[in-house]
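Session log. Operator J.P. requested a structure for one protein chain; no other inputs attached. Running the standard single-chain path with token output.
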Amino acid sequence: MRLNNEMMEILIALLRKDSFDEKLFYQFSNLKQVKDLINHDKILNRKTSVDSLKNSLINAINGNNDDDQCYMFNDVRKNLDELEKIIQRINNQKKILTNNIFTEIEPYAPKEPFQDCTYYFYAGGIDGGFSEKSGEIYINIHNLLRSPDELEGILVHEFYHARKHPFEISDFFVFDFSEDNYLKTTFNFIFEEGIATLIQLEYRKRGEKFNNNYEYMKILSDSIEDIYSKNEPPEKSMANFFNNFDHMYVVGYWLAHTLYNHGGKETLNYWTLEYDYKKCLKIFIEESRKGKIKSGFSKEVEDYLLKHCC
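Structure written below.
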């Protein structure tokens, strides 16, 4: 486990000042980590930019307490000492954390595609972390202020994403909801996030939202039916599902859990190693038709998806 605090060191220095430091911000804005953060938000259709981060920092330093206008830098500024303690604690525990991550992921995935990673610490925004390049993981330290016990869960979740891929992640995981690609886009995200969430929650309490799997599956089922029935264009219909990312995590967890119960990590490997969403989806629907579970899809949508998967 390699730790990189560079972005946090400069961010903390910026936020400790009584006025905005243009030269220090220039250093900050040219960091690889800041560019990666902006690119991550861009993938999620957010409007984060160098200018927006600058304005957010100025707002926070001037005492603005609006989270949206400050990219959460206002709360980061109030907790700088505590954030430094969290970073130090992670530094002190990195050997234990590394061992725990490999132990937790072993029942669900083979060792081969995983490697020691560089963990970049940042603060700001709403995500717990992200990984869009093999071997690189970003952890939002600010989110750990309220939930320090979630550290290992976030680390193992992002560690799954950071495995070696035979492609650039940013090229593969794109929000392309054209008529030809909406199913691929939807289930690429669902299986990737679902398996990561399954591993994350194995040793941890699930939130109440995970009891809503059939409610969220119905939203997905209705969205797909609207598309193939020509009631709505794919971009508009799939927005009903993706406008709340909880839908993706909960549905993904439900599908991944079903695949794991079917055949352990060998079945999960159809996604982890082969990225074959069609094979994973086919197994999920076939399992439901054996009467072991309800898929949550309507019979018509199941038939449509099975035809697509063949």
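Operator note: The chain has two domains: 2-161, 175-309.
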